[in-house]
Design brief:
Order of helices and strands: EEEEEEEEEEE
Structural class: mainly beta
Shape: globular
C-alpha cells in the first residue's frame, strides 16, 4: 500500500513563504512522476507543479517564478517552496505520485495552505 504524507501547510500573510513536503512509501520513488495539485474552496483540483523522474519541472502559469518543486530520491521526498504567496493561493495542496508500467497514481491526504490578505 503506497502512502503519501504531506506536511508544511499553514496560515501565512500575503507575501510570505511556506515549504511543503511529501514523503512517499514506495520502493520505486526515483522512477516516479511527482506533482502538487491544489483545490480552492468551490473550485476543481488543479495542477500546480510537477517534476519527472529525470528532474524536468513544469509549473502552472499562476505560480511560475514563485513556487519551486524539487525532489530528493534518497529520502523519497518531493518538496515545493512557495514564495510570494497570494490570497488566491489558498487551498488544500495534494501530493500526487505516478508510476509507470502499468500507469497508476496515488494521492496524499492534503495539507491546508491559507494566505491572508
Amino acid at each position: 500500500q503506497v502512502q503519501l504524507v504531506e506536511s508544511g501547510g499553514g496560515l501565512v500573510q500575503a507575501g510570505g513563504s511556506l515549504r511543503l513536503s511529501c514523503v512517499a512509501s514506495i520502493s520505486v520513488f526515483s522512477l516516479s512522476e511527482m506533482a502538487w495539485y491544489r483545490q480552492a474552496p468551490g473550485k476543481s483540483r488543479e495542477l500546480v507543479a510537477s517534476i519527472t523522474a529525470t528532474g524536468s519541472t513544469n509549473y502552472a502559469g499562476s505560480v511560475k517564478g514563485r513556487f519551486t518543486i524539487s525532489r530528493d530520491n534518497a529520502k523519497n521526498t518531493v518538496s515545493m517552496q512557495l514564495n510570494g504567496l497570494k490570497p488566491e493561493d489558498t487551498g488544500v495542496y495534494y501530493c500526487n505520485l505516478g508510476v509507470h508500467n502499468p500507469w497508476r497514481t496515488y494521492w496524499g491526504q492534503g495539507t491546508q495552505v491559507t494566505v491572508s490578505a
